[in-house]
């Protein structure tokens, strides 16, 4: 039983690490003293189950995620994590800006503006590599 | 002046027609007797300005749109229009289902469920072609 | 004690009747068998306390209410009641359409579209009088 | 591996059945032809993981769920399922009405009204037993 | 008339004090120079009317409130006040964590994460007494 | 073509300047290095198209905007900009407070409280002139 649980957890951890990098590990660490089981669920369900499914490429998954988070407008920390994640899986800065501008159509200009300012913060602390830009 | 205005409007109309097909035209018709100017803005800004920008492919744009609308959860008619639009620009049924399942992570299971049931309705009235499926 | 309670309740009932007309009475009737106390609160707080305050005219109050409900996007029955109420207190059909189009800027085009279609329904069942139009 | 997967799935299925009864089974059936994997996740994560945790009684869990769904206001089908579920785990009709009235404080009167009308529908199709009322 | 008004106000003040303690008083003080009438309404309606009703225990009321606020995700100051309030009326830290983890199912992982981090802040400034923990 | 584009842009810039004053210019400046095209759209569509329409006075437009933003509750920076804008177009401080208190009815007390505290911040940095107060 431990072995199987580990399989799902390990798969999620690998996906989390590949997608979110240090940001994902930081969230897990922040949960350690208040809700360690939730850190486990976060690794197992979103990353071990959903992001590990073969039916959609990670680039498309991150486009969907930053669009959803920008539209909701009440999850700025997670939006920043996934703007970084989008860069990590090959969405360019210009494409991220396109996606966030488009959110103005579906959730209004304030949601788009706040998301663009979140992107501005992320970009300023992530110097573009050749590949990412 | 008419000419330039027409340029932006015509570009939007072409984009709307290519992306949303009949559904877009139907919305414009429904607005005719209550807010015809809004039909014009709908064509000019979202489609003439945003969707016509070269920096992001239409497939990625529709992935972002259905993710945003599914997450918001209060725009089911527009979600259905854009599930159709996503099919029109080459997102497959299986990919749409992947995107909507992923919304459970960011906006909860009810938002994902209601979006999946909207997709079920759209799929049942759009027989899959070879390309779309 | 009854007298004072009646004062607040009666003031709310008068405001509700003046603003929402039959629609307000219908909501109160629908609550009678499930939550009669909530019908009382609905009359006392929103109408007896808030709408009865002298610091803002009813026209401005209804503009604020339909803007808020259109932006929230998940309260279509109440939006329709207050589109009727706005007409009752002197906001014209054209002004209501202007307000709802403006919601596209702050809450997105789907919220504005769904609110405009709600207005279309209300308008079709309320033939314009000279004053209201 | 099958055995362990089954353990989590079976635990979720037992919880779903105990809490939601037929309504849960109906949702799973509706997903069968569009997103069968999502039906499995729905059983495994919310019910197999969360509702099966020993740290909070089911009565408290359903109070939290109907409060959350009523506040969100865009998940009426799920709200109705969980009003039934709340009755199933011993929350009385009067208590459900109290919870939904309280939502007016945190999410506004329209959210509370729409939730109360959802409860009215559920109650009318679930004749009160001695215990539930 | 003054007497009756005082009755409702005094009842609300007593409830507010019992539930929210200093946090409630602080909010009232913050409103004093901008909207003193709103401070009165806040005491009268939520606390004098709703929380003072006999049909639901305060423990259940606070479970509903923190679930609603965590799901909405845009009211972090009020969520913190009510996490404290939940502790005050006997909900344990472990139960609060259970409720907030469950919000992931209905409003997504970001809403649950942000609520858990709010709880972490509250817990760190409220050393557990024997009773509360 | 340039001439016509300029017409729409210039009209929006004039409206933005009249309504939002320095706050509008600041937002445009903040977008310059990340999404300059979005700054252009922000001037053209909300201000050049919507706010420049003759069918509704600016006072009514700002009442609608602050009501919508307060109800949404996830756009505090834009709410502050438009509380300033409302003052600029002749809505008094007392009327703004009335509008925001009313939001408690439609979006709950936390949304109203957070909007009132935003207004408190704006008012404290904008000494009332004779006209504005």
UniProtKB/TrEMBL annotation, chains A, B, C, D, E, F:
Domain of life: Bacteria
A Pfam family hit: CMD
Cross-referenced InterPro entries: 4CMD/NDH-1_regulator, AhpD-like, CMD-like
Residues spanning the membrane: none
Entries under SUPFAM superfamilies matching the protein: AhpD-like
Gene Ontology terms for molecular function: peroxiredoxin activity
Limits of the Carboxymuconolactone decarboxylase-like domain: 36-121
PANTHER family, alphabetized: 4-CARBOXYMUCONOLACTONE DECARBOXYLASE FAMILY PROTEIN, GAMMA-CARBOXYMUCONOLACTONE DECARBOXYLASE
Official protein name in the record: Uncharacterized homolog of gamma-carboxymuconolactone decarboxylase subunit
Native source organism of the sequence: Paramagnetospirillum magneticum (strain ATCC 700264 / AMB-1)
Source lineage: Bacteria, Pseudomonadati, Pseudomonadota, Alphaproteobacteria, Rhodospirillales
